Amino acid sequence: MLKVLGTRPYKDKTRNYGDCIVYIDSDTAIIYDCGSVEHAERVIQLLDQYGIEQAVLILSHNDDDHFGGIHYLIDAGRVSKLFTILLLKYKDQILDAIDDKRHTRESIGEQIKAAYDNIASLSKTVELRDVYKDTTELPDAVHFIGPDFGYMIEAVAKGLDNRQGDTIDKETITNATSIQIQLTFGNKKLLLTGDCAPDAIPDEVELSSMDYIQLPHHGKSSSAEEIFDRVGQNNRIIYIVSDNTGNSNGGSDDLNSRGKNVRNTKTGDDIDEDNIHSPIKKAGLLLSPLTGRTLGRHK
Fold it and tell me: Which string of DSSP letters, residue by residue, matches 164-211?
C-alpha cells in the first residue's frame, strides 16, 4: 500500500498541510515526511488498519511543511526510528569547507543547533539515525540516493557562512539538501525527493529507470522542467506532486505537465495505490485509480 496523503478529509482547503507519503508492506511501515497533525492522525489510522505498531520515519528536511506532524507521531509512540541528516556529526568537515578562522568547531556546533533546533528537540523522544552513517539500518525497501556527502557539506557550509548567501542552486540550503530515497516495491521504483534542488540528485541516478518520481518542491515549475529534461522522452513514468494549494512553498500552479503522467494532490484526492503493481490503463494513458481522470492533459 502506497499513499501520498491529500487533503480531501480536511476542512480548510486553503491551508498548506505539507507532505506525507506512507508505504506499508506486510509488517513494515515507512513514512517519508509528515507536514501536519492532520496527516499524522491519518498515518496512525493506517497503521492501526494494517496492525502495525511503529513505523520508520525518514525526514527529508526540517521545514515545517515536512516536519509539522512528526512530534504528534512520536508522542503517540508510533515511530521506531527517524532517519535524517545529523549535521552535528560533521562539524569538522563543515568547518573545513567554510575555511574562515572566525569560525570554530564550537561556534559551528552552535549555529547548527540554532538552525536545526527542531531536529535536536527529537533526540530525547525517538532514536535518531544519520542517513550517511546508518544506511544499513534502513528498511530493505529503502535505498538512500542523495544528496552526495560532498554536495551536502558544501551547501551547509555556504548556509552557515554569512559571506556566501543562504541559497544554492536557486533553493534554500535546507530545501536543496533534502534527503532523496528510492522506495522499491515489487518490480517498481519510486524516487522521493522532498524539496531538493534537481542538481542535488547524483548524476549516476538514472531517472529514466524510475517508475514514479516525486517532483521536487511541490511541483515547482523550474525544478520539474529540469527533471523532465533529465528523464527525456520516457512517458511511462508517473510524476507525483504533493501540493494541495498550488501556490505555496514552490507550488504547481505554473507547472506545464502536458504530455506527462502527473498525479497531483491539489485535486483533493489521495494518490492511493492499493494495487500499485497493476495501474489501470486506457488508450495508452495511465488513469487515476480513484477518479478515472486522464492524467497529464491539463496545463
Answer: S-SEETTEEHHHHT--EEEEEETTEEEEE-TT--GGGS-TT--GGG-S
Question: Can you give the pTM of this predicted structure?
Answer: 0.90
Residue 40 · residue 34 · CB < 8 Å:
yes
End-to-end CA distance of the chain: 29
Q: Residue 261 corresponds to which cell in the numbers above?
A: 503522467
The answer to whether the bond into 147 is cis (omega within 30° of 0) is yes
CATH code of the domain containing 199: 3.60.15
pLDDT in tens, 97-144: 998 888 899 999 999 999 999 999 998 899 999 999 999 999 999 999
Residue 229 burial by CB count (10 A; 0-12/13-18/19+): exposed, middle or buried? exposed
Residue span of the structural domain in which 51 resides: 2-286
On whether residue 193 sits in a domain, the answer given is yes
Distance in angstroms (rounded) separating the CA atoms of residues 265 and 39: 13
The residues near 265 (Cβ < 8 Å, ≥ 6 apart) are 4, 5, 6, 7, 241, 242, 243, 244, 271
Closest CA to 158 of 142, 146, 169, 147: 169
- The per-residue pLDDT for range 261-297, each reduced to its tens digit, is 999 998 777 887 765 543 433 222 222 333 333 333 3
